[in-house]
Every structure is written in C-alpha cells, then in structure tokens.
Amino acid sequence: MKCHQLIETPTHKWVFFGRDPEKPNKIIDTNQYMVITSNKALLMDPGGIELFAPMLANIVKMIPLEQLTHLFASHQDPDIISSLGLWDQTLPDAKLYSAWMWEGFIRHFGMDNISYEAIPDEGMSINLEQVELKFIPAHYLHSSGNYHVYDPAAKVLMSGDVGAALEGPEADIFVEDFDAHTQKMRFFHQRWMPSNTAKNDWIARVRQLDIEYLCPQHGRIFQGKQVAQFLDWFEQLDVGTGINRSA
Q1: Is the pTM of this model over 0.90?
Q2: Residue 144 CB: number of other CB atoms within 10 A?
Q3: With pLDDT > 90 as the criterion, what percentage of the chain qualifies?
Q4: Residue of 14, 11, 131 lying closest to 62 (CA atoms)
Q5: What pLDDT band is residue 26 in, cutting at 50, 70 and 90?
Q6: Which DSSP string corresponds to 181-243?
Q7: Is the pLDDT reported for residue 208 higher than 80?
Q8: Which of 35, 74, 201, 205 could form a disulfide with 160 if both were Cys (CB 3.0 to 4.6 A apart)?
Q9: Side-chain half-sphere of 177: how many Cα atoms within 13 Å?
C-alpha cells in the first residue's frame, strides 16, 4: 500500500493511503485519507475489512495508535466502513462521524465501543485541536445521506465518490491528463450518481470553496486548475441515466 503526504501546514498534515497491490483482484481500489494534528488524527473512509491490516500497519508507522481519535464515514457502503468492527476493537475510545440516517445500518459492521456522532442533514464542523474541518452535504452523490470533508486551511476537499475513477493499483496518485481521465470517470458518474438536481446543488456549494486538492475515494487526486475543470465537466454531464454514453 502506498502512503503519501499530500500537504503539510504549520498545524497539521493530510496523508493519502491506497494503491494496495496485494488487495484481492475483485476488490475495487479505494483511497483513504488522514488528517494529523499534534495530538489527534481523523481517518476518513477507513476502507473495507480486507484493508484493515495494511491500513493499521501503515498508520502505526506514522503516529501512535492512541492518537487516532476520530473516524469519518462519508456514507454506508462496505468499501467505506466494513472494517469498522476491527477498528472498534482497536480504537475503543474513538468517535465515528457519519450521517444520522445510517447509524442503524453501519452498526451491522460491528460497533460496541466506538461512539457514533450523527451528522445532521445540513452538515457540521468539528475541531481537531486548532484545525477546523467541515462536513459538507453531498446527499444523493451517490448515497441519500452523504458528506464530504473540507479543510479551509489546507484547501483540501475529500470528495467521496465524486470525482471517482476505477483504476488498478498501478495508477498514479494524481491526475496527469485531465481529458484522458474523463473517460475513466464517465460511466461511474452516470451510473452511480442518480440526480442532476443533487449534482448541481453540490457544484454550486463547492464552487464557493477555495480548493487546491479535490480528493476522491477512488481514482486520482485533482490539483489546482484541474478542480475547476472537473466541476465544469461534472456540471455538463447528464447523470442518473444508467447508460454508458460515449459523448
């Protein structure tokens, strides 16, 4: 599994985990992100149960395990949070932030110790020491209760399934050729995103944010001007069709 420091500020840093060459072939590749401050850390979309061992091994190389105090699940899918039962035994004092509507479903993955912190529909903010992180509503993209994580100081948006592309573990971490990359995103977004109304609501909200890195849960990270390119591309894309269109 690759581990890459995305950005470091005077108060915190963002770390990427992914591209695990040892994952089973029929398991889709996922990206995990962690924000680390002096004494706390938040792990976003910790991954499926099959990723628990490599994730744990990489995290303890970076921080003491007791520093991992917060977890975040953008929604309820197994590739996001089915490792919860193992984290529950490993981090009994941690908090998991996710949508209020998914608590009864997420607990099926195993949750006896970690506390569930329900995010309201309108989103919310939390502080990791002096670092403010915002849970931005992204409902119906693709889950009916869905959130992204925005860091105003680092100018990073962890965008969940928005911006996703399904590629193998050999793929680079960052988008290189934007136009070529759209061909890897098109079917995913048209099939998994059910609502143009929800899409356009999210785009209008996100255009108001200062974003240098747009970090999806699958595929590659967008940087700089690519963020605006992605928003323009996504805005013109007709989603919810269930059809793999070539145009």
Answers
A1: yes
A2: 15
A3: 91
A4: 14
A5: confident
A6: HHHHHHHHHHHH---HHHHHHHHHHHTTS--SEEEESSS-BEETHHHHHHHHHHHH---S---
A7: yes
A8: 74
A9: 6
Q: What is the mean pLDDT of residues 30-39?
A: 97
What is the edge-to-edge ordering of all strands in the sheet holding 222-223? Answer: 124-128, 131-137, 147-151, 156-160, 213-216, 222-223
Is 2-236 a CATH 3.40.190.10 domain? no
CB 12 within 8 A of CB 128: yes
> Over the Cα atoms of the chain, what is R_g?
17
The amino acid present at 75, given as its one-letter code, is H
Q: Is the dihedral of CA 97, 175, 141, 105 positive or negative?
A: negative
For residue 192, give both structure tokens: 């998994």
Average pLDDT of the segment spanning 172-191: 96
**Would you state the structure tokens that stand for residue 142, as one six-digit string?**
């693709």
Collapsed DSSP state (helix, strand, coil) of residue 134: strand
pLDDT, tens only, 143-167: 999 999 999 999 999 999 999 998 8
Instruction: In whole angstroms, give the CA distance from residue 36 to residue 8.
Output: 9
What is the per-residue pLDDT for 169? Answer: 83
Q: Are 101 and 80 in contact (CB under 8 A)?
A: no
Distance CA 204, CA 126 (A): 23
Element holding 35 (H helix, E strand): strand 32-36
pLDDT at 177: 97
Domain-by-domain residue ranges, the chain?
2-236
Residues 6+ apart with CB under 8 A from 5: 13, 14, 15, 16
Here the tokens at position 119 are 């995010």
